[in-house]
UniProtKB/TrEMBL annotation:
The keyword Acyltransferase applies. Involved in fatty acylation of protoxin at internal lysine residues, thereby converting it to the active toxin. One of its GO terms (biological process) is toxin metabolic process. It comes from the Bacteria. This is RTX toxin-activating lysine-acyltransferase. It is found in: Cytoplasm. It holds the Pfam family HlyC. One of its GO terms (molecular function) is acyltransferase activity. Belongs to the RTX toxin acyltransferase family. Its main location: cytoplasm. Its EC number is 2.3.1.-.
Length: 157
């Protein structure tokens, strides 16, 4: 990957992520994760589990620069009131595992699982996501460290 990407980056091109192969998706996420401190030590099976679980329910998005190079990746899921409260209270246990997090739900609460953007500020990404998901009044990010099980919750909007 070329490291001369300038920040902050706007969304310059849209590539239909549903047309990406699993190998391409995994390759791009792996490359981005290697450059993001909290994910640089993640194991391949953990990364495969995260990416494939989100891709199965089509709740992922890549951001590309003007040369169609990926510079960010996000994944998300929807939750009901009870699950939302469990996540906020750090009392969600298995719900935080990718195979439980990424279950198709028609629910009002939006939670991001992965936000990988090692080459830019996430501000433009948040703005673009908020504009493309106007039905959600708020969104949260579950930040986890695979190495020490430390987690933080951030309200994105």
């Amino acid at each position: 990957m070329n490291h001369d990407i300038e920040s902050p980056l706007a969304v310059c091109s849209e590539i239909d992520a549903t047309r990406l192969t699993d190998s391409a998706r995994l390759g791009m996420v792996t490359d981005l994760a290697l450059h993001q401190d909290e994910l640089s030590e993640i194991s391949i099976p953990q990364l495969v589990n995260r990416v494939c679980a989100a891709a199965r329910i089509h709740q992922t998005r890549f951001f590309f620069d003007f040369k169609n190079r990926p510079y960010a990746y996000v994944s998300w899921a929807h939750f009901n009131e009870q699950q939302h409260r469990q996540l906020l209270a750090h009392n969600s246990g298995e719900l935080e595992q990718p195979e439980r997090f990424f279950i198709p739900r028609d629910a009002p609460y939006l939670w991001f699982y992965d936000l990988i953007c090692p080459f830019s500020s996430p501000l433009q990404i948040f703005k673009t996501l908020k504009e493309s998901m106007p039905t959600f009044a708020m969104a949260h990010l579950l930040q986890r460290s695979e190495l020490d099980e430390h987690k933080r919750i951030r309200r994105i909007w």
